[in-house]
Amino acid sequence: MPTQPAxxxxxxxxxxxxxxxxxxxxxxxxxxxxIRRLRWPFxxxxxxxxxxxIPILAVVGLVLAGYLAFIETRQQSxxxxxxxxxxxxxQSPYARIVGIPxxxxxxxxxxxxxxxxxxxxxxxxxxxxxxxxxxxxxxTFFSLYLTFLEPFVIGATCxxxxxxxxxxxxxxxMVTAPVVQPPMRGRRSLAASRR
Length: 195
Fold this sequence. Notes:
Elements: H1 14-37, H2 48-74, H3 86-90, E1 96-97, E2 100-101, H4 102-123, H5 126-154, H6 159-175, H7 184-194
Antiparallel strand pairs: 1-2
Helix pairs in contact: 1-5, 1-6, 2-4, 2-6, 4-5, 5-6
């Protein structure tokens, strides 16, 4: 009796997995650029735009991870949207790390990022800013790993997970954004007008 050939994970849901591949590609590009912008000791001043968007992105990530944590801890079916199969992703062996649901780890991570941002804003503590950068870099690499698993190992894609990965990558972009210096021309013309 002939056996059915094994289906490659990517071909199980080509549309959703292609979306995941595009997201993964974008994440790799952004991560590469962001990492090149990092300068030790990771305590550079953040641009005003970044300061404003970091808490918004952290709260968005917290909501996404909170929903996933709720689904994973209650073992309920997720509302998946028009493409993908969130439930297959959440039932895979990769949905837990040392027995802890990935959504719960996401909640902890986003809360820690938000906490580090608040401590940095209130107390201007260098260690808080360094911790913020390190947590976001770690979270982005973890998101890259999980996003890779979906199309290439699990064969299913979770839109909620992709949105969280995009959010974490956007946070990386914000914490590594360079402070834009005002153009020198304006300073020279100001000095010339004073003469």
